[in-house]
Each structure stands twice: as structure tokens, then as C-alpha cells.
Specification:
Number of helices: 2
Largest sheet: 13 strands, antiparallel
Strand content: 35-45%
Helix content: 10-25%
Mean pLDDT: 91
């Protein structure tokens, strides 16, 4: 039987496989996170007709003479180039800009994906369209430990968070050195107790005999008056107190009941210059009880919850994984990939660290299929198939001629 017949058959098979791969690429041109596949051909074994000959004194060397036995599919490589961004405006849609894969858990199997079209299920879990749970780290009191084991990302809307009692108030501004004697300046800031109840803390600044003092009161209890001292440059120098971290600060510890856990009132921003009175309480760190109303995803993967009291707090962080050889991953369907012995172990980390990409919320990564290239590949595969078909028909003609020799 003619070798050309079997070479033609192998060519048909290889170009049919190329056509299959190309057709699949085109079918997934609009699939979120899809990565194009690329075929690589290699020749098969060659039959030795004559081996190489070494040069001799009386005759030169000869090259080997071999007849190829066809072609085979050597590899189908996955091309992990960045796909274009498609803005969706949905806060649960996330795109990776750079290297890395989302980590998901599907039926107790850890899989990986570039498709960030996520949703929340009835239990508040962040999931893929097929229900695989997106993995990351939950936050404890707004702090994420990225060294902890991975877990499901949960963000149940309406979750109630406990109130935070005020333990720090920051005051800044000017107490005029040219104020009428006597003078009183009153300011009020809303603070919160351990139950989340609002407590108006009144600050009364008194100017007498060229000196300023301050009294703090919550309507029931008070501390003061406490004398304020200023240096030659007009910056406040006293009084001082020790805050909860053990640091000494300029200000007053408001603890009328001597519980040891009062409100540290930071007065380091006060001055005494000639001019207008601009003293104001700038901030306090307490908050009432609140419910989770919305969220956003930062470039570093942190899910920041927005609560009904206006406060924002990190509630979780998405994890990413990368591999030494991403093309070694096995496609598992549903835009998911599975670890293999040739991909290397997953290197897990937070977005933006260790060579991992950052995240873009409100967008998804589209397919990286190049239609112009795929249409060209279609033509190449078709012509290759036709040429190998011609080889088979020609070989058949030769065999027919051999049969006809008997006539």
C-alpha cells in the first residue's frame, strides 16, 4: 500500500482537528474570560531509505534519505493573553488586569477562572453563574488576614453590625489671643456610647485673665475646667493624657466616672493666635448599630461594605492564584480550569501582590479570540484538508493504474 495514502489520511485528520479548534474559538468569541486555543503540528516518524555516509578519501559523504509518514497534532496550546474590558456597571462583575485567576470552590474541588461575572446567592455567597463559590478571606473587625485559610466570600445585605463606642475625639482650630475677657466659646459634637446611643459632648472654652480653659460635659457629667497652656509660638503644649495605646497626647481624657475607658479628646491641633475663633471638633470614631446596604470592590480585592450609618468597613478580600505554567492547566468547562502536574502548584495571594494583577470592578474580561486570525486559520485548515484529499485521490489513481496493469 502506498505511503502517500496514509500520509494523506494523517493530514486529513490533523487539519480536521485544526478546524475543530478554530471553530471552537470562533464559537466562544463573546464568552467572558475565554482564552483562545492554538494548534501545533509535528511530523511523524520517517522511514529510513538510506542512512548518512561519512566522507571517505575516495568519495564524499552522503546525507540520509528518509520518507515522512505524515503529520500529527503535537499540541493544543491555550493563549493566556489579556482580553479586552467590557464595562457592565454591575458591582459584582470583576476583571483581572494582569496575571492571575479567581479561585472558586465547586463541589469541594478548587478550580480557577478568568471569568469574573459573579452574583450573590440567597445565602449571601459570591458565586459564579454555575454556583461555584468564589474564594477569599473574611475580614474580622475590618482587618483581613491573607495568611488564613481560604473560605467562601459572604456579604449578606442587611447584616447588623454592633455599635462602636466613641473613644477618640479630635479638635482643631484657633482660640483667639485677643478675645474679650471674659469670653466663652461653645462647641458640640455627637458621640456614641456602648449601646450606640447618641450623646452630645459639649465643649466650653472659657477665656479669663488672659488664659484659656475648657470644660467637657455630656449633660449629666462633666470634666473641667482644665487649663490650656500654649508655647511662645502659639501652639498648645498642655494638658496631656495617655491614650489607649499608651502614647502621651496633648488633650484631655474625658472619663467623669473614672472607668479607665473614657474618651480621649485630642487637642493637639489648637492654637492661640490673634484673630478669629475657629476651634471646631473635627471627628470622632464612634458609630451606632448599622446594617449593610451596599459594597464596592477595590483594586486590591477588598470588599468594602457601606453601612446605614455612613461608615465603610472592609468585610472580605478576594484571593487570586497564579501558576508557573498557566498553559498547563486543564480546561474543566464553564470557563474554569483545573490544576495539573504540569501547571505547577497554585501560588495564592492578594491582588496586586507577588506579581498578581489588580481588579477592576464593574467590568468583565472578554474573550481574547482574534476573529481575523481565526478566519485565516479556517482558510488554512480548509485548504490543507483539500490538499490532503487530493493526495488520497491521486494515490487511489496510482493504485488503480497498478490494478489495470494486469489487463
Amino acid at each position: 500500500m502506498l505511503r502517500s495514502l496514509f500520509s494523506g489520511i494523517s493530514g486529513l485528520r490533523a487539519h480536521q482537528q485544526m478546524l475543530d479548534v478554530t471553530s471552537n474559538n470562533i464559537a466562544n468569541v463573546n464568552t467572558v474570560g475565554y482564552k483562545a486555543a492554538q494548534t501545533v503540528f509535528a511530523d511523524t516518524l520517517s522511514q529510513m531509505m538510506r542512512s548518512a555516509g561519512a566522507p571517505q578519501p575516495e568519495i564524499g559523504g552522503t546525507n540520509p534519505a528518509q520518507v515522512g509518514l505524515g503529520v500529527r497534532l503535537a499540541a493544543i496550546n491555550t493563549v493566556f493573553t489579556q482580553g479586552s474590558a467590557q464595562t457592565t456597571g454591575r458591582p459584582t462583575d470583576v476583571m483581572i488586569s494582569g496575571d492571575g485567576f479567581f479561585i472558586v470552590n465547586s463541589t469541594n474541588e478548587q478550580l480557577y477562572s478568568r471569568a469574573g461575572a459573579f452574583n450573590f446567592d440567597a445565602e449571601g455567597k459570591l458565586v459564579t453563574p454555575t454556583g461555584a463559590a468564589v474564594q477569599g478571606w473574611p475580614a474580622v473587625n475590618g482587618v483581613v488576614n491573607s495568611n488564613a485559610p481560604l473560605g467562601d466570600i459572604r456579604l449578606p445585605m442587611g447584616t447588623l453590625i454592633a455599635p462602636t463606642a466613641t473613644d477618640t475625639v479630635v479638635v482643631s482650630g484657633n482660640l483667639p489671643a485677643n478675645a474679650p475677657d471674659p469670653s466663652t466659646i461653645t462647641r458640640v459634637i455627637k458621640t456614641y456610647d456602648v449601646t450606640g446611643a447618641a450623646v452630645n459632648l459639649t465643649q466650653s472654652y472659657q477665656y479669663t485673665g488672659g488664659n484659656w480653659s475648657v470644660t467637657f460635659s455630656d449633660g449629666t457629667n462633666s470634666v473641667g475646667p482644665t487649663a490650656l497652656t500654649f508655647g511662645p509660638n502659639g501652639q498648645i503644649t498642655g494638658p496631656t493624657f495617655t491614650d489607649k495605646s499608651g502614647a502621651t497626647k496633648v488633650g484631655v481624657l474625658y472619663d467623669p466616672l473614672s472607668t479607665g475607658s473614657g474618651i480621649g479628646i485630642d487637642l493637639a491641633g489648637l492654637t492661640m493666635y490673634t484673630g478669629n475663633a475657629t476651634v471646631q471638633p473635627l471627628s470622632q470614631n464612634g458609630a451606632p448599630a448599622a446594617t449593610l446596604q451596599s459594597f464596592s470592590i477595590n483594586p486590591d480585592g477588598q470588599l468594602v461594605g457601606v453601612f446605614s450609618n455612613g461608615n465603610k468597613q472592609t468585610v472580605a478580600q478576594l484571593a487570586l492564584a497564579n501558576f508557573n505554567n498557566p498553559p498547563g492547566l486543564e480546561k474543566a468547562g464553564d470557563s474554569l480550569y483545573r490544576f495539573t502536574v504540569n501547571s505547577g502548584l497554585a501560588q495564592v495571594g492578594a491582588p496586586g501582590t507577588g506579581g498578581l494583577g489588580t481588579l477592576q470592578s464593574g467590568a468583565v474580561e472578554m474573550s481574547n479570540v482574534d476573529l481575523a486570525q481565526e478566519f485565516t486559520n479556517l482558510i488554512v485548515a480548509q485548504r490543507g484538508f483539500q490538499a490532503n484529499s487530493k493526495v488520497i485521490s491521486t494515490s487511489d489513481d496510482v493504485l488503480q493504474e497498478l490494478v489495470n496493469l494486469k489487463r
